[in-house]
Amino acid sequence: MLRPFTLHRPETAEEACALLAGLGEDAAVYAGGTELLLLMKLGLLRPRHLVDVKRVRGFGEIGLAPEHGARLRLGAAVTHRAVEQSVLIKARCPLVSSVARHVANVRVRNVGTVGGNLAFADPHSDLATLFLTLDATVELVSPRGRRELPLGEFVRGPWETSRAPDEVLGSVALTPWPADTAAAYVKFGAHERPTLAVATALRLDGLAGAGGGVGGRIVDARVAVGCVGPTPIRVAQAEARLRGAALADLEDVARAASESAAGGVDPADDLYGSADYKREMVAVFVRRALRIAAARARGAEPAARFPYAVVA
Amino acid sequence: MTIHVVVNGRPRDLEVVPHALLLDVLRDALDLKGAKRSCDTQVCGACTVLVDGLAVSACTYLAVEAAGRSVLTVEGLAEGDSLHPLQRAFVETGAVQCGFCTSGMLLTARAMLAENTKPTRDDVLHYLRGSLCRCTGYRKIVDAVLAAAEAAR
After folding, report:
1. Reported ipTM
2. Overall fold of domain A181-311
3. pLDDT band (50, 70, 90) for residue A191
4. Which of A2, A108, A191 sits opposite B19 (nearest CB)?
5. Taking CB atoms and an 8 Å cut-off, how many pairs form between chains A and B?
6. Which among A59, A144, A154, B30 could disulfide-bond with A75, CB atoms 3.0 to 4.6 Å apart, if both were Cys?
7. Which CATH architecture has domain A6-52?
8. Candidates A34, A41, A111; nearest CB to B40
């Protein structure tokens, strides 16, 4: 059972912000409810007003962000299912489509939203981990105007963001990787929320089948690790190890990069495992993700699958 | 507030409060007990109903969200005395054990077949992820869904 609340349904971002500014701590932003309603049922949150942002103009749209070159903009109220099925996203950021297909379960994907997922800032978020490798920025709207900040600065800690109480998350923008990029997302977990997630992207000087033959060298790399630390992070040390390496040396480089990644995360002992164990598993999963990305760079889809793991 | 909603093909005007959950309205106001409250956290699938054809967890879905939409529960699956092909396949395959998960399984499978008429075993497993059977009778449930898909072709 839920405690009573008043439901507000603004149609513009400005109206939504004005409501939030006026209602203060009595209000919560509501979209799919897949996170918020659970906390309300438990009594952990007791808002007396819900501000439903699903009807806000533009919040349900997926499109290009013209002011940002070829970036892709996802409205905050876009559902995981819409991401999964978007032709535009599949064309520009195919890994985002395939990761969306594996978020939680189909019921959550049908109602849960991109904005809700990011603004809830659960450390076990598929999207936050993946979006870090796409240099995501979020747009926050308030009565003072709009501001844009990197996703890594928006997600400040577990269940904590830098959103002010009168701000509403409007959209997230992604920078698609260049065409000569091979990528992989590997997550482990027996339940709806992943226990460990690694997203990686390798940009090569030519991809198999792209006309230039098999690319020889990694010219740029992205490695993000989620779920094991207080927030998902990009691991710069691991990326540095990969940059400039020859694809033929991937096995050695992946080992070095995975050790850097294990050293770069900040895990805690909890019910999922000890901090040491999590570091060990970060190394294992970074290696797996890099091997899969490298195989894709060579034009092959590896058959390797791992227990309780999803490869996207 | 009053919401207009079509439940199992029948138009209804329902008086609901904003904090009413769809599951409670279906079970208590409309006496449709097929959707079950179990995990209450969108993990198990026992409360699954279709809203405009999409599977949702009625336990974590405000009833007001169904306004202007069409809701299908397991009670609306059969045509009169004639079982839905999925229901028939579940019976014939022995995919029902205690029955607690069955309504959710049936509705989730129906949503899948509306999108994909030729599912593979992996497609069914993927779509039914998050639909839990505590009798662990998954093999026969998947067999039943595949049999119903085959029969519909």
Report:
1. 0.97
2. Enolase-like; domain 1 (3.30.390)
3. confident
4. A2
5. 66
6. A59
7. 2-Layer Sandwich (3.30)
8. A41
